[in-house]
Amino acid sequence: MEASKKHPLDTFTHLSITYHESLPHVTHIKLNRPRKRNAINALMWREIGEAFRQIGTIGDGTRCVLLSGSGKGFCGGIDITDEKFFSGISPDNSSDDEESSIDMARKALAFKPQISEMQAAFTALEECPVPVVAAIHGACVGAGIDMTCCADVRICSPNTVFSIREARLGLAADVGTLQRFPKLVGFGSRVRELCFTGEDFSSEDALNIGFVSRISKSESELFKEANQIISKIIANSPVAVTVTKSSLNYSRDHTVREGLDHVALTNSAALMSEDLVKSFMMTSGGRGAAEFAPLQPHSRL
């Protein structure tokens, strides 16, 4: 049984990565700093990027990812007690005299790569070839919003509290929320209000603006809801699902004409898959679930 196998990526300190206990072809990635409300420190941030750059590309059989948080909440945001986040602003290896002699332009140029690295870690969820379904409960604050904006499907429990908290902490959100959140839910007044005030918003608010697609009946029912969505995804051809995700992401950032050209080029190869015939026979003949071959490991230098 797949769930009994150790996942090849279950090697991280602050992430638990296992095969789903009941669904085949599903990897469960759990943020695993429950005592810190899954606040993300520098190590955990790097691990998120490393995990999602590999998942579904190394022959692990993954067709969908379930993303959740351990403990009482999904993610409490950035761990502001981790000094590594701010070391680029005030380098430890510089004396006070040396620090004061470095002009702001040079400090900024030195610090920008850290922000870019943090952005890239969350973008890895978006670029992961298989869908990511985020099951959110408790607090989802700051960096938690940044991260879940990159998921493909978001559902939450009734007790979930969201907040684009950065403005209240004295900074603009800079790892994706201001770019992705409005594209998910629109650029209207309510979105700007949430970003400017940093106030909390509820699961009902998140559903009403379209940030989540459903709310579970209770926190205990959250994974049941997630599993229902995932089971429908993995019943489909992994080639079709991967190409669909790629086309959706590409079309979001390009014109309709460019999106059409992109999917035409991609599908000219994907339609050659044996999955097309299997899927047609399954849907037209009323047969049971089709057996699809796994996606191949990605070629790397």
Which structural traits does this protein have?
9 strands; alpha/beta; 12% strand; 301 residues; three-stranded mixed sheet
Write a structural description.
This protein has 301 residues and is α/β, with parallel strands linked by helices. The chain has eleven helices and nine strands. The chain has helices at residues 42-54, 96-101, 104-127, 143-148, 177-185, 189-197, 203-209, 222-234, 238-252, 256-270, 275-285; strands at 15-19, 26-31, 64-69, 132-136, 139-141, 153-156, 161-163, 200-202, 214-215. The strands form two sheets. A six-stranded mixed β-sheet has the order 1-2-3-4-6-9, sandwiched between helices. Helix 9 runs antiparallel to helix 10. The chain is globular, with a radius of gyration of 21 Å.
Give a topology summary.
Elements (H helix, E strand, L loop, with lengths): L14 E5 L6 E6 L10 H13 L9 E6 L26 H6 L2 H24 L4 E5 L2 E3 L1 H6 L4 E4 L4 E3 L13 H9 L3 H9 L2 E3 H7 L4 E2 L6 H13 L3 H15 L3 H15 L4 H11 L16
Parallel strand pairs: 2-3, 3-4, 4-6, 5-7, 6-9
Antiparallel strand pairs: 1-2, 7-8
Helix pairs in contact: 1-3, 9-10
